[in-house]
Write a structure and sequence with these properties.
This protein is α+β, with helices and mostly antiparallel strands. The chain contains two helices and seven strands. It is globular, with a radius of gyration of 18 Å.
Length: 173
């Protein structure tokens, strides 16, 4: 994979949409037969990377993942569907939203398992940051997620600065 060659033409959110499906096997579960949270986080990271790669047309590395609320248990034999798309671009970084569903393919029922927001940074093969094309939200849902990404980024930056300040104060005690 090569970098994006500096092509910064804006792209629709729909161009980054990705979907992956995983079948929950016994090795993916705890002793109670429920999907391990760490395995789900791994799949979320992969699904997010797919959207980031599609949008940036470059390598993309995970910079952060927000908290995850596990809404319903997932069991051996269930299909996990991970849907991802770029929500917003910030020069070299992208916020990607991942929606996780569980499908029981016998009954055909689907339930939302989790949602997560991840930040990826576009890099070249030497690890140098690359600019990313802007994203164009078209639907009302995409516009809502686009605006929410700025709020999440602002809150995350404030929290990071608070933690840095707290570490500085702890060193002076």
């Amino acid at each position: 994979m090569e970098h994006n060659d500096g092509n910064l033409t804006p792209k629709a959110v729909s161009e980054s949409k990705s979907e992956m499906i995983e079948l929950v096997l016994p090795n993916d579960t705890n002793p109670l037969g429920a999907l391990l949270g760490g395995r789900l986080m791994h799949w979320i990271d992969l699904a997010g990377a797919l959207a980031a790669h599609r949008h940036s047309r470059s390598y993309a590395v995970t910079a952060s993942m927000d908290h995850i609320d596990f809404l319903v248990p997932v069991h051996v034999g269930d299909m996990v569907i991970l849907q991802s798309a770029v929500n917003r671009v910030f020069t070299t970084s992208m916020e990607v939203g991942v929606k996780v569903l569980v499908e029981n393919y016998i009954s055909g029922s689907r339930q939302k398992v989790a949602t997560a927001y991840l930040t990826f940074v576009a890099v070249d093969r030497f690890g140098r940051k690359l600019e990313v094309p802007p994203v164009i939200p078209e639907t009302e849902d995409e516009k809502r997620r686009y605006e929410g990404a700025l709020r999440r980024r602002t809150a995350s930056k404030a929290e990071r600065e608070r933690r840095i300040a707290a570490r500085g104060d702890a060193g002076n005690r």
